[in-house]
Each structure stands twice: as C-alpha cells, then as structure tokens.
C-alpha cells in the first residue's frame, strides 16, 4: 500500500488497473486513508545511550589524547580561521610521535618497505642489494608474495625467526624460541591481549594488576576496560623515580585485602618518567645516561638460575614506534612470552586468530628493526650513522630539557636516563588550586590548559598518569628539533613565572 501511495504522489500511471479490477489510484487512495487514521508512532528510543553502554568502556580514560588534546585541535581550527592568538602554531608535545616532530625516517627501513610494497622496484639499480635481499625474504614468506595477503595469526614465520635471533643476540646468547614470539599491532595490542588472558575471578579473587605510578595510561585504560583491579606501586621521585622493593611488597600486601594481585607491569626505560631500570621495554634503544645500560628481564631470570628462568611466566614487548625508528604509523610490534602452559598458549593463539593477523606491513617494518644491516653489508655505514644521529640528538635534548627546567623556580626535573619524555614536578600556588576547583579541573589540568591557551604548547597533566597525592607534574616529549625544543622550554619557563606571579 505504501508503495502504491508513493506512486500516486509522483503522478505515475493513475489509471492502471490493479489485480482485482480496481484502478491503482483508487487502491492508493484507500491506503492513504488508512495510513492517515493510524496514530503516529512515537520516535523509537535509542538502544545505545551513556546509561546503557558498557560501563567498563565508559570508565576508560586515555590522557595522552584526552581533553587537553581536543582543546588543542579547537585552537588549531581557530588559528586557521584567522583568529588572533599570542602564538602562531600549536606545538603538540603531548605524544611521542617522532616523525610528526620532524625526525627523519631511517633510510634502510624505508627502502625495504618500499621494495616490499612495490616489488617491481626489486629490479631498480637505485636500491642497495642488502635491502633487496631482506625484501625478497619477507615477500617469499607472504601468501602470493604480497604484503596484501593475510599472515598466520601469530605472524609471518621468517619474521618471528628474525625476532628470536635478535633477542638471542641482545641477551648475550640466552636462547629465544620463535614459537614464543607473537607479532602484534604495536606493543599496545600485545599488552591488551595478555591482560585479557590473565583477568579472571570476582570479588576478592578478581585479578589485580600492579602498575607503576606514574604510569603510561594504556595500562589503566585496559584495566578499566577489562574490569580488573588496578594496584598502584609508587616510584620514588626523590630517588630519580627508582623502583623500591619495599614499596612493591606494600602494594602486594594491601592489594591482597581486596583482590588477587597476579600481574606486575614494568616500563623500562620509564614512560613518562624517563627512569632507566636495570631491565625490559619498547624504549630499550633509548638509554642515554652513561651510568645506565639496558638488561632484559629475561636475561636477568636466566642469570638467576633455572628455578626462575624455567618457571616465571614473563611477557615482554617491543615495537617499531619508539627507539631510534619512530615508525609509529606502521603499528609494528612483537611480544615474547616464556614459560606459558601449553594449553594456555593454545588459548592465546585462539584469541589472536579472532583478529586474523596484525598488519603485514607492520610485521615487515618490525623485521627490519630486528634484522638491520650488519658490518660488511652495503647499507651498514649509512644505517649506523643515521641511528647514532637520532640517539645522539635525543641524548642532547634529554640533558638540555633537564638543565633548563631546573633553572626555573617552582619546577624540578629528574635526570632523563632514557625514553623520550620529561615529567617535571611543578609547584602550583593555593590560589591557582582554588581557580582550578572553580573550573572543576584538577590543578595540573588547569595549569596545562592555561599553558596551551597562552603559549600554544600542548602537554599532558600528570594526573593523567598518576602521581602521589599533593604533587603535580606534566609530561612532554623531547622530540622537537633542538632549536624548537629550546623555544618550547623558554616559553614554558616564561609562562610558569607569570603563572606563579598571577596566583601568588
């Protein structure tokens, strides 16, 4: 009937006879009359609302891309529309996105990726033979010799073999098994997957996940999403953000009163603190302090003897996003999981198979990170020069940031031993805290929002990472080029001094 009525409204075939001898126009008129006497249905209520949605998802917070970043986007649009500000650009120092900050890609990595993406280039004399060799090896392991094919859920076999060989070299000969290697969509994908496997129970038996405070917000976000229990252990800011074993014991003891603490997360070198433990992590290439050296937890377990190396269940992660590569957009990563029960390994592979496979291009990028040019190969000298340049600049910027921040009254910054961030402590006057409360903001959020509005510099408040009560911080990346970083640091210094004067 509705279709017939629609035809009449368009003036189509008004005298055509229907199946019972009536004209379609007559039938349509009857239908229209019926429709008019029906009471109009009320608008259908939405099924998905803030009240009905998954409460665990609603509880997720991710400060690195939170309200301060949304405000930065609004300001950028205002600048584009010609609205005058005390600055001409927004400097996004909130996230460790190396290439967005001007870091140049490593030539060898991009050469191999270009060859893998467009194999016709394998015949080009413009590419070195060692790059071609790696590209051919990767492509031969892909279905149809193409990055566009799915891989096994655990990842391309030859890349897992290269990761295992890399870990063995890194740890001074401690063996790594390719069967324990799982390629992932960045390190975050692996972390989320492992936590999914670990979280279980209810009430006091619910899984507790111990995380360092300050922490990288991925951990608290995934813990919220999985409805696990977050167990904080505090790093010692007065001792260069050191991990204190007694603090770990305190956290475990108190956690046992309300949950089952069975996961310990460690970030090394630290994010956001820049602390370098004597062990693990995606920043393992970013160690600047001459007094620090990276040691993997796996190697430490091995040195502690079979009682530990054969029994402790350990998952470690690495990615293409950090280190000297800074290839965040490829979303390449891996995890090595040791001493996992065979039946649990089967469950892990099952869980990974749900997402089919990580991006094969990201897997290829990860392969180049773990299988770089070696002495005697054509690309070795250029690769080494570029790698050392990136790490040397980061070391220089780490020291520059520490020194300049510590010249500012009311700011204290611990030495940046590694990673690519600073997490300075800031003094916030009482009147500023009152103003923050009036704006319904945490004091350090208020500080960072004012910094953004007055200077265009976007940093993340320490409350998004966790901090001891009564202390305030912000995290910023040290990735901008040296001259721009100097400008950023000077602007922060000038702002902070004015902030203290205004709210004295």
From TrEMBL:
Necessary cofactors: pyridoxal 5'-phosphate
Keyword flag Transferase: yes
UniProt domain Aminotransferase class I/classII large: residue ranges: 111-278, 307-491
Catalysed reactions, as listed in the record: L-alanine + 2-oxoglutarate = pyruvate + L-glutamate
Enzyme Commission number: 2.6.1.2
InterPro entries: ALAT1/2-like, Aminotransferase_I/II_large, PyrdxlP-dep_Trfase, PyrdxlP-dep_Trfase_major, PyrdxlP-dep_Trfase_small
Gene Ontology terms describing biological process: L-alanine catabolic process
Gene3D superfamilies: 1.10.287.1970, Aspartate Aminotransferase, domain 1, Type I PLP-dependent aspartate aminotransferase-like (Major domain)
GO CC annotations, alphabetized: cytoplasm
Gene Ontology MF annotations: L-alanine:2-oxoglutarate aminotransferase activity; pyridoxal phosphate binding
Enzyme class label: transferase
Role description: Catalyzes the reversible transamination between alanine and 2-oxoglutarate to form pyruvate and glutamate.
Family stated for the protein in its record: Belongs to the class-I pyridoxal-phosphate-dependent aminotransferase family. Alanine aminotransferase subfamily.
Record note on quaternary structure: Homodimer.
The protein, known as: alanine transaminase
Species for this entry: Sus scrofa
